[in-house]
Amino acid sequence: MKFTLDDKEYESDNLNEKGLTALSRLQEINSRKQKMSAEFNDLSVLMEHHTKILKDNLPEETKEEELKVSSK
Asked: Distance between CA 18 and CA 16 in Å, rounded?
């Protein structure tokens, strides 16, 4: 299997056992990183959504005060 490191292409068949292990771990780490990044983006969207719902459902007096502060 070919892989790229520092903009250079290599063949995994030429790696020793430690190199193969490192390559495998890097692939696993990269996969986890991508999943975590996607999850972080999903959580950000959910936070925005629920923040809007909360703001829309604040008591009227709080909304009026917020409007006064934001208009200054």
From this structure: 6
- Asked whether 20 and 28 are in contact (CB, 8 A), the reply is no
Question: Which token pair is 23?
Answer: 């390559």
Q: What does pTM read for this prediction?
A: 0.65
Predicted confidence (pLDDT) at residue 20 exceeds the cutoff of 70: yes
- What's the CA gap between 46 and 49, in Å, rounded? 5
Residue type, 48: E
Unique residue bearing structure tokens 């520092």: 6
pLDDT tops 70 at residue 62: no
Instruction: Answer yes or no: are the C-beta atoms of 3 and 12 closer than 8 Å.
Output: yes
Cα(17)–Cα(71) distance, rounded to whole angstroms?
65
